[in-house]
Specification:
This protein has 13 helices and 10 strands. By secondary structure, the chain is an alpha/beta fold. An 8-stranded mixed beta barrel has the order 1-2-4-5-6-7-8-9, surrounded by 5 helices. The chain binds ligand C2E and magnesium ion (3 copies). Ligand C2E binds next to strand 2, helix 3 and strand 6. The site of one magnesium ion has 4 residues, from strand 6. It comes from Pseudoduganella ginsengisoli. This is EAL domain-containing protein.
């Protein structure tokens, strides 16, 4: 009974916000050491060439298997990793793990296989960093071109010198850049020209509402035409239906990614998936 009273008092006097804050603190604490404890897992989702249906690219998506809570979404733990500084350790792990798989897939699947790796603004703005990546890639016999770094528009909006410098350094070593979730931020088309981006990923909020003659179709059409004129290739995110896929292909979109093709899957499963593609 005393225990019950204690619990009631707890819930009565603790506003929901405080509970959420406590939850974040606990999770952040658990996140320390999660990499070393082997709790991170890397999933891959295919990026499909729409004209041929071939898979020569994939996006790496990190997962955290919490010992008590089970799978925690990156939408929940990446912000905690950022505010605690743990993001750098996680990012390094994601990059190393990705490079290991790319080496296999370049050897066994396609010589130009590429993996895209997400970078939060904090990671991208960090001085250097890419030197370590290049050492790792070189050790594995991989060129910079085997990696695409996915960044978001916000980063370009307040493009500090650090961002501009990093983009130039990546270009020098051959690492490519994709603009993720395009259309959700303050999309400024002039950035596409100014910054020498390789891929533009149309956000899934556009893909979701694609229908002939819809405004999202008009926008997607225009984005694709413009991107091509600027020499970028276009990847549509969140392709879930054959109709969306057809409309995007008709509009000249280069690649599609989404549940229609496959959900993100554990690396070993994706490896088997690749080996199963008809040649
Ligand atoms: P994102 O980079 O935009 O990744 C695409 C997200 O959309 C993934 O969510 C993917 O599972 C989901 N998705 C793919 N196809 C479909 C579809 O057809 N329908 C729907 N509804 N969703 C689809 P996920 O894996 O939960 O990742 C969420 C976000 O977390 C990513 O968004 C990315 O911003 C971030 N993230 C993931 N891995 C990393 C990482 O290694 N480092 C950093 N910094 N961020 C990461
Ligand atoms: Mg991404
Ligand atoms: Mg995205
Ligand atoms: Mg997203």
């Amino acid at each position: 009974a005393a225990k019950d009273a204690g619990r009631n008092r707890f819930s009565y006097f603790t506003p929901a916000l405080q509970v959420a804050a406590l939850n974040r603190m606990r999770l952040t604490n658990d996140l320390r050491g999660a990499v070393k404890a082997g709790q991170m897992e890397l999933y891959f989702q295919p990026i499909v060439h729409l004209r041929t249906g071939r898979i020569h690219k994939a996006e790496a998506l990190v997962r955290w298997r919490h010992p008590l809570r089970g799978m925690v979404s990156p939408l929940e733990f990446i912000p905690l990793a950022e505010s605690s500084g743990l993001i750098h350790e996680i990012g390094e792990w994601v990059f190393q793990e990705s490079a290991r798989w790319i080496q296999r897939w370049r050897t066994d699947i396609h010589p130009e296989f590429q993996v895209s790796v997400n970078q939060s603004p904090l990671e991208f703005q960090r001085e250097g960093g890419y030197e370590g990546w290049m050492r790792l890639l070189t050790d594995l016999g991989l060129p910079g071109q085997s990696i695409v770094i996915e960044i978001t528009e916000g980063l370009l909006l307040d493009a500090s010198n650090a961002v501009t410098k990093k983009l130039l350094q990546l270009r020098d070593v051959g690492i490519q850049v994709a603009l993720d979730d395009f259309g959700t931020g303050y999309s400024s088309l002039s950035y596409l020209k100014k910054f020498d981006i390789d891929y533009l990923k149309i956000d899934r909020s556009f893909t979701r509402n694609l229908a002939p003659n819809s405004s999202d179709m008009a926008l997607s059409d225009a984005i694709i035409v413009m991107a091509h004129k600027l020499g970028l290739r276009v990847i549509a995110e969140g392709v879930e239906t054959p109709e969306q896929c057809d409309l995007l292909a008709q509009a000249g979109c280069d690649y599609g990614q989404g549940y229609l093709f496959a959900k993100p899957m554990p690396a070993a499963e994706f490896d088997a998936h690749l080996r199963g593609q008809p040649s």
